[in-house]
Prior knowledge:
The chain is α/β, with parallel strands linked by helices. The protein contains 16 helices and 15 strands. A six-stranded mixed beta sheet has the order 10-11-12-13-15-14, with helices on both faces. The chain has a five-stranded parallel beta sheet with strand order 2-1-3-4-5, sandwiched between helices. The protein binds manganese (II) ion. Manganese (II) ion (MN) binds next to loops.
Amino acid sequence: MSRDYTRFVDEAGKLSVAICERAYENQPVMILGHNDADGISATAIAAKILYRAGVKFHARVIRRLDASELERASSSGRMVILCDMGSGYLHLLSKYSWVSGLAILDHHKPEVAEPPSNSIHVNPYLYGVDGESEISGAGVAYIALKGFPRVEYRDLSILAIVGALADMQDVDVGRSLKGVNKLIVEEAERDGYIGVQRDLLLPGRESRPLHTALAGLVNPFIPGLSGDEDACVSFLSKLGISLKESGRWRTLSDLSNEEKQMLFNELLRYLAENNYPTSTLKNLIGVSYILQREKRFSYMRDAREYASLLNACSRMGLHGLALTIAMGDRRVDLIAKAEAVYGEYRGKISSYIRTITSEPGRIVSMGKFYLVRCLDLVEEDLLSVVASIITESYLADRGMPVIAISGAAGGEVKVSARLPRSGRVQAIDLGLVMRRAASKVGGEGGGHSVAAGAYIAKDRIEDFVAALIEEMGG
Ligand SMILES: [Mn+2]
């Protein structure tokens, strides 16, 4: 993989001017973003840039780019900016006409096809940059749009960082960002928007009582502690860590280094004693990206938690709320609503994980992969989170892909596939496996090599599983 980041950044910057000219000529512009936290961050960047440039626009986030969305976007006759999606659908996009222009700002591996006519395609893979780990959809939107003439963009670098963390691109030493992401972090640090710290990465390290923070930890999921505040209180008390200090609840940031070290060691011991994978705890120590302009006790202060908040709101169906917050709205009632949804989301996830891991027949070994059956249990927007947690916190050491299925809208079935780190020695590309296996049963699938998904018809589940066994040589 070439490290030609500056060429990519420069070329994308040049395309900025072309996108800008198109946008001015074709108002109002339609911004369509993917509804995950990266897509929402990308959409917010695009919306802020257009707003500041005085270009009229509509912004919306959608679950996926299917035929009906494309039909709607194309027939509107507007210029369309796609954020965090599109590159995998070049062929499909070409079937529609884009009279006012189309900008595809994405970091997913592009389909091998010509981009549609009258389109501008910005994607790191076209420049030898890895879209899986070196730049997110929000990062692409940032570098492709920050070149709008005379528009202030520097504060939007934090959204590029939030997007990268949301897409779990913190894969360098100590969970830090690398590649183009790192360039953006350095820029944001220089401009005083971001501070970088190394610490235990509990959610709410600055904002919540220690036992609540520990109970709020869903990824990695600590069986017996995650989602159970009482258990966390007794776990911490047994360690002799006092929960209060002069009448006030202590947060993780109030703990001494010795206390943090002891807490970490005891968590390790606890997992090992109960035969759970301990490798996931490595993820618990690392770099935090602190947003200097956000209030100290707010959820948006820590970029990783900001990403989780957007993610939770979006997965609970409140895309508009997530987008509003990403665009910088900090009204108290709005933030309170988002925080409540975030709590509700954690509660749901914890209860799903408990059910899946306690009911027999939910996790089935299929030889070369694990099948996680959540058809009647998990809603489609929460499936990939559940799949990630099961993979990392329960099956991390098994070295095999985890394929989870749940019901989806329109009587379809959603499939979510994850490869644990221990399985990454195999040359397996889950995106390819999903695409092939799904197409064998008339569905559609794709994604990254370690995280992918598909939609198939409900009556084809068994055929799909057979196709997976064939693809993976089970
Ligand atoms: Mn993305």
